[in-house]
Write a structure and sequence with these properties.
Layout lengths: L21 E10 L2 E10 L5 E2 L2 H5 L1 H11 L1
Antiparallel strand pairs: 1-2, 2-3
């Protein structure tokens, strides 16, 4: 019996627009007039970017709150 752990392959994300493969990379984002760079999944074919929940509810929410306070 082997004691090695089986590695589960990472799920391959596909673009909802064109079906192309998504790859993580640096992406420029603009939200409410503020620009910042983030590491996100981007389609290699059409360039569509997947914004994950952490970014949408984290950094973007912080920017929105800081602008509303002004």
């Amino acid at each position: 019996m082997s004691n090695t752990l089986k590695q589960t392959p990472k799920p391959l994300w596909k673009c909802g627009k064109c079906g192309g493969e998504l790859k993580r990379g640096s992406v420029k984002a603009s939200y409410l007039g503020n620009d910042f760079e983030v590491e996100e999944l981007k389609c290699l074919n059409c360039g569509l970017v997947l914004i994950d929940e952490e970014l949408a509810l984290g950094k973007m929410f912080e920017v929105e709150q800081s602008l509303e306070d002004k």
